[in-house]
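Class prep. Sample record?

___
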Amino acid sequence: MITFVRTIFVMLVLFVSSFGVFAGEKEPVVSIGESSSIHSKALDKKIPLSIHLPENYDSSKNNYPVIYMMGSDFKARFALLASTLDVMADRQTPPMILIGVDLSEGNFVLLPDRKTGDTKSPDAYLDFLETELIPHVESTYRTAPFSMLFGASNSGWFSTYALLKKPELFNSYMASSPMIGWSPDVLKQQIEQEPLRKLSEKRFLHIIYSDDDYDRVTQYVPGFSDTLNKHKPKGLIYHVKKLVNEGHVPATDFTNLLMAQYPDFNAHENLDTIDKVQKHFAKLSKRYGYNMVPSMSLLFDFGLDLTQGKDFAAAEKAFHYALKVHPESKRAHFGMGYLRRAQGNIEQAKAMFKKALAIDPEYGLAKRFLERLDS
């Protein structure tokens, strides 16, 4: 039985100093999502969840990849991941759903028994993810067939172990400052045995840490990498990055991990025609196995530049494409209105500005342009 308790998280810890709180305000300055819970038979307890959805989730019909974060009871870290996804989804990565798994008893539950090496506890959490949480998320939200597991510190050990034990469970595994030194022999044994060696599909493992990290990280990641590289199948893409002077679980870890996962979502080459844009994202869609489209920011700026350069035919094509892939976007409608205004089609421009305002009545840009046309 799954229960939902919808609440708003207030990001005071992370954002008060940046945004401020005015006297008398009762509403949170920033919200990052909702809380939920699921009763787990595998773990024999209720597991609190933290959920963050893409900005336009409710107004769109798109499917989204999912990142599962272990340890979202550390709310500042969950807030950091959520805000990073929102910022980077503007240009650097596709928008994603973030599902946080709270570890109320601490992240040591994701490690083997220190004395015996018994993996009963981490195996139970893998069972929970596979048989309970993932099916629940996929039946509740519009998910794309691409999922990632993120863990930091002890949870990072678990992310690494999850790849070795169940490589087909997620498409990508991310570990920040993984405490490999707690149980290096368990990981080594998994590398040399099944099922990783039988992996036939493409999978990703990304590890990040700092040169001044804990000894259980810095002294063991290189040896782990050597062993993995000797035994890893061709389908496993392994990426490890060592930062300088950023300590345990670096604050920039998630940004770096996302950039490693999506290195060319923001294309390196100049996409100077809409045909090139479409071909680039068709290539990405094939690589990741689900439909990926350019961000509205990319298409908006692209269309405005073409309009200002008076290449109206190309701008027309760009904004029609934007309306096709982002029909819920106020900027897609405003952009077409901006083009119609430049073409001298005033009534059509007004109609598009009004459609933008129907989506967001407080959209100032559309308000100003409509007022100018009405004056």
Remarks:
- The first helix runs from residue 12 to 19.
- The beta strands are 2-4, 34-40, 45-52, 64-70, 97-101, 143-152, 172-176, 203-210, 236-243.
- The two ends are 58 Å apart (CA to CA).
